[in-house]
Specification:
It is a single chain. It contains 10 helices and 10 strands. The protein is α/β, with parallel strands linked by helices. It has one domain (about 10-265): LigB-like (Protocatechuate 4,5-dioxygenase, Chain B, 3-Layer(aba) Sandwich), CATH 3.40.830. Strands 5-2-6-1-10-7 form a 6-stranded mixed β-sheet, sandwiched between helices. A two-stranded parallel ribbon has the order 3-4. A two-stranded antiparallel ribbon has the order 8-9.
């Protein structure tokens, strides 16, 4: 990242994909590196990861958040990765104040999960920018999630990078089936359509489409059997401004049907 500038920070949504992207030199890790180099250096990062999907709106508030290895079946080298970025309790307090209407609370039992550190170890490899995480409340509907994202927007004028981390298409059963099959890199039509339709909704600032299409279309239901990888996109979109066009820093599919599209506003 370049040196901190006295201006509004961008908002980013990253398609993080497999945890293996954290340790592999591949198309996606190189894309995360390039994205980090293109962004101004923030004072701190607020991450909204698909992998903290719980029964409330919570924030990590400890000075030294743990590196969470929230996966299984991967090689020891991945489990040995540490991302020792500091936390920032004062930022957690500020976010709690912004989200007072949403009953946000601090928690110490979580840390930085792989939705956050697998991309930040490429975007901010020195791990020298404070990072806190915000959970996704599984009890809220999509509109309420978007309201929380909108409430976070003032942080952008305080030097904070808002980072959503999920995937625009994320059907693991389909992806695992393709990896075991004869054509692991073939992208099904429904995945390609949903990714393209979402990109167009982002270009057009069509918030209603983002709120409904993933639940109310056949392609959307196949793209997201469960919502947690979709919701971080709503946070990032809601924290952006109508005057800020969506730019796609990374595009493409991994394992056939996992969209790795990353989006930048501002």
């Amino acid at each position: 990242m370049s040196e901190t500038r006295e201006e509004r920070m961008p908002v980013v949504f990253v398609g993080h994909g497999s945890p293996m992207n954290a340790i592999e030199d591949n198309r996606w890790s190189r894309g995360f590196t390039a994205l980090g180099q293109a962004l101004p250096r923030p004072r701190a990062i607020l991450a909204v990861s698909a992998h903290w999907f719980v029964g409330g709106t919570y924030l990590t508030a400890q000075p030294r958040p743990e590196t969470i290895h929230d996966f299984g079946g991967f090689p020891p080298a991945l489990h040995e990765v540490q991302y020792p970025a500091p936390g920032q309790p004062e930022l957690a307090r500020r976010v709690r104040a912004l989200l007072a209407a949403h009953d946000a609370d601090a928690r110490s039992e979580w840390g930085l999960d792989h939705g956050t550190w697998s991309v930040l170890r490429w975007m901010v490899p020195e791990a020298d920018v404070p990072v806190i995480q915000l959970s996704l409340d599984r009890h809220l509907d999509a509109r309420r999630h978007m309201e929380i994202g909108r409430a976070l927007a003032p942080l952008r004028d305080e030097g904070v990078l808002i980072l959503g981390s999920g995937n625009i298409v994320h059907n693991l059963r389909d992806a695992f089936g393709r990896m075991r099959g004869a054509s692991p890199s073939v992208t099904p039509d429904w995945a390609r359509r949903f990714d393209a339709d979402t990109a167009e909704a982002l270009r057009q600032r069509d918030g209603d489409a983002l709120l409904t299409r993933w639940q109310q279309s056949d392609d959307g239901r196949r793209a997201h059997p469960t919502p947690e990888h979709w919701l971080p996109l709503l946070y990032a979109y809601a924290a952006s401004a109508d005057s800020e066009p969506a730019r796609f820093a990374v595009e493409g599919f991994d394992a056939g049907s996992i969209s790795m599209r990353s989006v930048v506003w501002g």
